Amino acid sequence: MPLTALRLLELCVSAGVPPGVVNSTFGEKAEVEQLCAHRDIKAVSFVGGNAAGESIYKLCAEHNTRAQCNTAAKNHVVI
């Protein structure tokens, strides 16, 4: 579990970022596909393996969802 990302989310909440503005989720393929295809999701940022990143990027493109896929990356944090 990426504890750094979770800590950053905690800091966002304590700084007053409204609920729903910044979210993070961890899941398997079914959950990821559901998020990428959901009409209310406007953008997806992914860090992980090449195969998963390519699949997520393609699925997001099919649903006009913005995608940022950092493949083959480890311990990547964007603020």
Which features characterize this protein?
single chain, 79 residues, two-stranded parallel sheet, 3 helices, 43% helix, globular
How many strands in all?
Answer: 2
Helix-strand pattern, N to C?
HHEHE
N-to-C terminal Cα separation, in Å? 18 Å
Main sheet characteristics: 2 strands, parallel
Shape: globular
Helix content: 40-55%
Describe the protein's architecture and organization.
- The protein is of the alpha+beta class.
- It has helices spanning 3-14, 29-37, 50-62, and strands at 43-48, 66-71.
- 5% of the residues are buried.
- The model has no long low-confidence stretch (mean pLDDT 87).
Topology:
Elements: H1 3-14, H2 29-37, E1 43-48, H3 50-62, E2 66-71
Parallel strand pairs: 1-2
Helix pairs in contact: 2-3
Question: Summarize this, please?
Answer:
With 79 residues, the chain is an alpha+beta fold.
